[in-house]
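pinned: reference chain
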Amino acid sequence: MKSVDYPSDSSAIAVRIERILEGTPRIRLHAAWPDHEGFDAQLPTWRPGRYELGQFAQFMYRMEGQTPEGNWVELTKTDLHRWRVPKGIRSLRWEFYADLFNAGSTGVDSDILYVNPVNCFLYDPQKMHLGYDIELTDVPETWDVACGLERNGRHLIAADVQQAMDCPILAAESLTHQSFTSHEIEFHIWIYGRNQPDAERFLKEHRAFTDAQIAHFGSFPASEYHFMYLLPEREVRHGVEHENSTVIALGPSEKSQTEDGHMELIGIASHELYHVWNVKRIRPTEWMPYDFSKACPSRMGYVAEGVTTYMGDLFLFESGIVDLQGWCALTVRLLNRHINNAGRLNLSVADSSFDTWLDGYVAGVPGRKGSIYVEGAVLALLCDVRIMQLTGGEASLQTAMRLLWEQFGEPRIGLTESDYWSVLNEVAGAPEALDDLRREFADGTEDSWDSLVAAMDWQGLQLSKELREGMWYCQLEPK
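pinned: its structure tokens
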């Protein structure tokens, strides 16, 4: 890799990225810093959309700095994810493992460069205002580049650290590209993969759930948006939200041509788009702004992921992508996970939210905790029905989410648990309207089955369950 010129803009870090394809797949990064008096270069320890420590330094091969005399020297760690950069060293280089093609990591091959900067970019914690001028050194000009960052020729420009860390980069020899407009916003669909879903249907369904979500919120918080799909030839199912984009991975790629695989992609896409409002803007105070240097536990994971899971599926129904039977099938799949996890009766969904930072997203010790996605979605459903019952169908959970967007998300004010429940109660029309749901199913570990049966019954649906070979199975159908 050629040396990196020192940035002429004192507010930007010049970064070049190059693929290493011989041996273990890696990327080599070379960054030139503006003048400094010495600082600690920080590698993020986690990434937005995954509320656990990622320990990204485990993927680093070396870290070197260039002295004023032009010699490269190894830098000394001051912490697991920090290196001391002495005064006089302005250029750094390092290598990073790049063979992870999930929706939140970094991977390269002869025909692709896929980078999540939050995995592998360094920053100065004392100068979060510094931007990045990113050059993809060995990407041919014939390749398409999908990214939510601004362009300056072949350079990608990030305004500051927060933006850089939340904008993945996908460049490939062959990227299928489609676009559509919704509410005067330009949306792009980029797909990498040998096998791909039906293009006409895929575009139509993206437009449908996008139109519906924007209509409910009343506005969209970005000037453009990118759906970026990775369909590699390996087992993967994953989606990650970003400020103005999402990466969704499903593999092997042939899955995308099956009905189940197609609907997996559409379901994840609806979920991730909803995150543009809920989490990327309507965000717990603990994540406002993101502090990548340490764990940032929050008890509100059930709002971040649970409400989004519920709403993502609901908007498939609202937009006509699935019918009532289809929504019931999605809900049954969720409820089967709910009733077969005894952990929901041991640790509340709020405490389970906090503890994702302790043991990640794995099941963990049997029967200890619940899923913020599943238990949070169940709670969201109960809140939705309660609000509709109390308002005669004039308001719903989505009414509350729009109010949260206007009061907290749009002005980017951090959200607390009290704020969230106060707004839900306000929309329901009484100061304590949902307090029992919070007490029993958010902060508590009560069994919600009877409440779920009653909520479904109010909507004209019959919910039941049966035990077969040690597992519970739900049924949900119109009465």
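why pinned: The first strand starts at residue 12 and ends at 20. Residues 199-217 form the longest helix (19 residues).
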